[in-house]
Amino acid sequence: MGYVARYQRTIGSEADVITLTADTFNDKVKEKDTAWFVQFCVPWCKHCKNLGSLWEDLGKAVEGEDEIEIAQVDCATNKPVCTKVDIHSYPTFKVFYDGEEVAKYKGPRDVESLKTFVLEEAEKAAAKAQLDSDKDILGNTNGSRMAIIPFYNRSRKTMKGTSPVNHQVKRRLITCQIVTLHLGYNAGGNDYDAKRLLDIDIVDVKTA
């Protein structure tokens, strides 16, 4: 399928790649808890044409990944959008999360590299958003100490951290008096960033 033809796909379609326009871009990339990996191109650019079906292949590769969308913007017909997000060359690939640009891709142009990049950036952005949310919650606890307790299934062999991207983790925020809580596992894990930044105690509870 040609490059221009691919650009005819719209948000209402079932395509793996969503075409964003000046009318839809802002609202879509502001969708809560969703990472948008957006390709900015123009139909006449030879480098964009040389991508072939790369972006569609990426869309298929991440199909089923929660809260990740693959999109494209035609800067020839949506110049205000591209100007607003500082696009000066084609193709340009950027990740947006909760309406903010969080990363620009400059690596190899192959599906596996692109997929690894967007998964990692989505997880980092989601973790940061959750930390910010936790800080807001902690600001309204009237001085009480906060404990974040992850509940997860012990049958899982590995866990990819405790970020909100991993839906195996269900966190509970409990307001309590200052007490000593014990870390139930790996003292070198991701928990310590939250522990240090938020001044909280963290415990683990393993379920059946």
From TrEMBL:
InterPro entries reported in the protein's UniProt record: PDI, Thioredoxin-like_sf, Thioredoxin_domain
PROSITE patterns: THIOREDOXIN_2 (PS51352)
Keyword annotations of the record: Signal
SUPFAM superfamilies: Thioredoxin-like
Superkingdom assignment: Eukaryota
Biological processes, Gene Ontology terms: protein folding
Domain Thioredoxin residue range list: 9-124
An example Gene Ontology molecular-function term: protein disulfide isomerase activity
GO cellular component: endoplasmic reticulum
Matching PANTHER family: PROTEIN DISULFIDE-ISOMERASE C17H9.14C-RELATED, THIOREDOXIN DOMAIN-CONTAINING PROTEIN 5
Family recorded in the similarity comment: Belongs to the protein disulfide isomerase family.
Protein name: Thioredoxin domain-containing protein
Species for this entry: Nyssa sinensis
Organism lineage: Eukaryota, Viridiplantae, Streptophyta, Embryophyta, Tracheophyta
